[in-house]
Amino acid sequence: MLPLSIRKWLAYGSGAGIEIGPANLTVSVVRVKPSGAKLAGSTVIENFRERPAAEWGRQYSEFLKSHGVGHLAAAVLLPRNEVIVRTMPFPGVKDEELAAAVGYQLDALHPYGEDDAAVAWSRLDASNVLLGVARRQTLDHYISLFAEAGVKVATFTFSAACLRSALRMVDAPPDSVLAGIDTAEGFEVYGESEAKPVFSAVFDMAPERALAFAAAELRLPADTTPSELGVSLSHAAAMTSACPNFALDANLLPEAQRRSTSKLRYVPTAVLATALAGLCAASVFHQPYDERVYREALLREIKQVEKLSGRVPALDKNLAQTRARVELIDEFRKRTGSDLDLLLELTTTLAPPAFASSVDITRETVTIAGEAEQAAILLRLFDNSPRLAGSEFTVPIARLAATEAFRVRSQRETPPVAVAQGAPAKP
Length: 427
What we know:
Low-confidence stretches: 419-427
Helix content: 25-40%
Shape: rod-shaped
CATH architecture of one domain: 2-Layer Sandwich
Oligomer: single chain
Mean pLDDT: 86
Strand order of the largest sheet: 3-2-1-4-8
Strand content: 25-35%
Distance between the termini: 83 Å
Radius of gyration: 54 Å
Order of helices and strands: HEEEHEEHEEHEHEEEHHHHEEHEEE
Number of strands: 16
CATH class of one domain: Alpha Beta
């Protein structure tokens, strides 16, 4: 349940309550506001059981119209002696399992047959449930009677549920209650205490004895002063009709036959419809404004981008120059390794006792001068190297004492990179 500080500001509406007596109907109209519940009017419809339903129904309708609430569906209180009221403890039972738990114990709480009992219950707190049971035949009689009279009924309930709801609707719940109500059926006692959340009974004994008996049931001191409820039974029923969301849902009337004619139920629909119409209008008339704002923002972005786009050619040029320099530096870095590899190749090719007295290496050619036992075969050896090709003697072979002097010029070649399957490539 909502806190009282919030609930009292949401408690707003008008309601009609009807108390069924042995011979008369007591009707009350109440207007509930955050400041409290005010009784707008009350009347007694006499001898309703003996009069034609249409006659007293017309009297009821005129009374409601005189207070401007002819559209209301009433909360009707059944006679207390025709309803069995029980408070049942169900500690630790979850909400989804509560209905099954109540139904399991229901047969032991009333003397009626399974199909002859009308049952209504509502959770009081985390551990207790308030239960009301009426005879189905009796309830059907009242339903038919009020329908014949043209009285719109939202709920058939009992006094204990209405009184407990009315005491908490716009005020803080009391610590304990012990109150007596004189009715045509007898002396009815309503009570609340920490030991028993709700006590309701009708006594045919003296009021003092009835109150003493109720105090004992509620575990209250014997000298407890009776409380002043401040509301009559029909008044309490009208309060539950005005604010059904803040009342106990102890309705014996079948759901299909419940009437609800409060004008407040149209408020959410009206608010949502108004909001929807406002949004549609805003969408239609706001579109040109959105397009103009979008176009201006787009032009500003284009101007900013144009300033940056003018720098793109210069950046491309700088990037090309930088790339060329990097490639040149990389080429120079690779030359040393290539020249060393060529020298290693020549060292392998000129096996002792042959030797080279000078090696002149350029980017395209290499010129080797030296001595060997047989200089003629050097051209074939050099051409077999993957780094040399087109070898030729630049001067004739000169015969010395034991060797031949030679001078060979070869074209430099880039050796292919041989990659063995499954092995990394070697430089």
